[in-house]
Design a protein that fits this description.
It holds the Pfam family Asparaginase. One of its GO terms (molecular function) is asparaginase activity. By secondary structure, the chain is of the alpha/beta class. It is built from 4 helices and 10 strands, in the order βββαβαβαβαββββ.
């Protein structure tokens, strides 16, 4: 892997809690900080395109993500994305040939103790380097084909269809 291209769209992974408002908002992308703290031995670039909860991502947003990734020279792309509509975005990205694209996110914000963000990012980084061209989802310690997975909202995890 020459360089990893990271595209961020928001989602829970980047959420921060505002005490004065008693709600969550999507903050700066967390993945660069996480990769730096972990001391990764590869070059990467971060392209922040959206700061949205994935329930609010539109078809136009998905097209922007697709066009942005298609325009990059990088063959290896990691996308951080909210979990609720991650599968829908992955299916749109399947039209991009010649790239290995892995979407990941978190069920709890990266800034929270016990978040699954670092684990999911690590799984996604390993997957993007080792899998053939195509689109994949890395969540809950598994690599999923977007056509064969769904988010189980009640159980708060991804599972096979």
């Amino acid at each position: 892997m020459d360089q990893l291209c990271i595209v961020t769209t928001g989602g829970t992974i980047d959420k921060i809690y505002f005490d004065d408002k008693s709600d969550f908002q999507i903050g700066e992308p967390q993945i660069g900080r996480i990769l730096d703290e972990l001391g990764v031995a590869f070059r990467y670039s971060v392209i922040p395109i959206l700061r949205k909860d994935s329930l609010h991502i539109t078809d136009a947003d998905r097209e922007l993500v697709r066009a942005t990734i298609a325009a990059q020279d990088a063959r290896h792309v990691l996308v951080t994305h909210g979990t609720d509509s991650m599968v829908a975005t992955a299916k749109v990205l399947a039209s991009i040939p010649g790239k290995t694209i892995v979407l990941t996110g978190a069920l709890n914000p990266a800034r929270f103790r016990g978040s699954d963000a670092e684990f999911n990012i690590g799984t996604a980084v390993g997957a993007v380097q080792s899998l053939p061209a195509g689109v994949y989802i890395a969540m809950n310690g598994r690599i999923w084909d977007p056509a064969q997975v769904r988010k189980n909202v009640e159980a708060n995890r991804f599972e096979a269809l």
